[in-house]
Amino acid sequence: MHSEIKELEVLFSSLKSKGVAGFSDHLSAIFRECKKIFISKGAFVNVRPFEIERAGIKLGRVLKKEPAKFKNIYKYYYDDCGKVRLIEIYDGDLVDREFYFYHSDCIFIYFFDAAGDIRNIRKCILQGVFFISEFNYGKYGFSISDYIYSENKLIDCIKVFEKEHNEEKGSTFNVKFKYNNQELESIINVFPNGYEEQRYP
Description:
Oligomer: single chain
Strand order of the largest sheet: 2-1-3-4-5-6-7-8-9-10-11-12-13
Structural class: mainly beta
Number of helices: 3
Distance between the termini: 35 Å
CATH topology: Porin
Number of domains: 1
Radius of gyration: 18 Å
């Protein structure tokens, strides 16, 4: 197993028993330190490159104030450096939380569901402002993603390997990006058997 995935597996196991309560100090610090809060109906901010578009989700819209009903509401907490430290995702009274921890060459992302259980942990490897690799370990499996850039520094392709815990081998696919005058035009998942799945638009 890849050393980065093994690292995330150990972290995941340690948080299974603690749950989001193990992040209570971090949560208090975020609420205390992050004065800028951004609210949207639906997902609106990409911390990772094109994560909303890759998920096949329609971009949300900005809200000027908290709505009366918290259905599919996203709250983004920003620190003084303009970085997202926490995303809260509301579905009525249920709240999923995603914590972001920044280092010089990587970002750790911890996702807890509304029950307070850890769902998955990501480690994103950076080279300057560019995402190079991403390792994801979760409840059901893990994945490894490698970013390939074109000469003009746009993402050309993401090579993905994913494996469920109960699988022997796992599988691969490529995420292909197309642009028009450097504006994103389409995202297509291309599988080894030739099948293509359009994710965006």
